[in-house]
C-alpha cells in the first residue's frame, strides 16, 4: 500500500511541512511518484520517519541525525552530550520554578532580584536596581549577607534616603548621614568585606568600579550620594575607633 504525504504525516503524527523539511535535509528518502506526479510513500518511509521522530524526541539535533543513524558506535557519546545539556536545562527550570514559587508566596514583583522575594516589600525601585547590579558582581555567599542586611528592620533610613531631595540642606544631610553611619558601622563589623567590597568583585576592577559609579550616579541625586559618602566615612571612623578600643582593652587585660 502507498500513502500520500498527508497520509504519511497523519500516520506518523507529524505535519506535511515537517516531512518536506526532512526531505530537504536529506534525512528522509524521497519516494517514487505515481503516474500523476504525486508521491507514494511505502512502509520503509514510515519506519524511517518514525525513527527520525524518535531521535528528535530524545533531543538529537537534526544535523547529527545522519551520524547517529549510520555510525552506531558514536551514538552513546552523542546521547551523553544531550543528557548533560538536558540535566542543565532541568536544573535551570527547577531553579526558575523555585523562584516563581517564592514570588507567588510573598506576592513580590516578578522582577525582584533572585533570593530577595521575602524582603521585596522593603525594596524601593532604586534598591531593586542596586541589588540587581550586585547580583551580577558578587557571588551567592555575599548576596546572602546583603539579604540579611536588607531584612534588618531596625534600619529605618531607607525611605528617608529615597525621599531626600537634591537640594536638601546641610542639617538634614548630616543628620541622615549620622543615622546611616550607625547602621553601616554595625554592618561593617558583622560583614567585614564591606570595608573592601571591590575585593569580592569579579572581572576588571577598574571597569567594575567605573560601571558601579556610573550606575549609582544615575540612580541617586547629588544630595543622596553626598549623604552616603558621609555615612561611609563616619562608619569607617566608628569601626576603626571600636577596633582601637578593643585592642587597647586586650592589651590592658593582658598586663
Structure description:
The chain is an all-alpha fold. Helices cover 67% and strands 2% of the residues. It has a two-stranded antiparallel ribbon with strand order 1-2. Strand 1 and strand 2 form a beta hairpin. Helix 9 (170-190) crosses helix 11. Residues 2-71 form the HTH merR-type domain. It comes from Arthrobacter gengyunqii. This is MerR family transcriptional regulator.
What labels describe this entry?
255 residues; mainly alpha; two-stranded antiparallel ribbon; 11 helices; 2% strand; elongated
SSE diagram, text form:
Layout: H1 5-12, H2 16-25, E1 32-33, E2 39-40, H3 43-58, H4 65-70, H5 75-106, H6 125-137, H7 140-150, H8 158-163, H9 170-190, H10 205-219, H11 222-254
Antiparallel strand pairs: 1-2
Helix pairs in contact: 6-10, 9-11
Shape: elongated
| Total of helices | 11
Could you list the spans in which at least 5 consecutive residues all have pLDDT below 50? none
- Largest sheet features: 2 strands, antiparallel
| Order of strands in the sheet with most strands | 1-2
Could you tell me the strand content as a percent range? under 5%
Task: Report Rg.
Answer: 32 Å
What sequence of helices (H) and strands (E) makes up the elements? HHEEHHHHHHHHH
Q: How many beta strands in the DSSP annotation? A: 2
Give the termini separation.
105 Å
Q: Structural class from helices and strands? A: mainly alpha
Estimate the mean pLDDT confidence: 88
Helix content: 55-70%
InterPro entries: DNA-bd_dom_put_sf, MerR-type_HTH_dom, MerR_fam
Domain HTH merR-type: 2-71
Organism: Arthrobacter gengyunqii
Protein name: MerR family transcriptional regulator
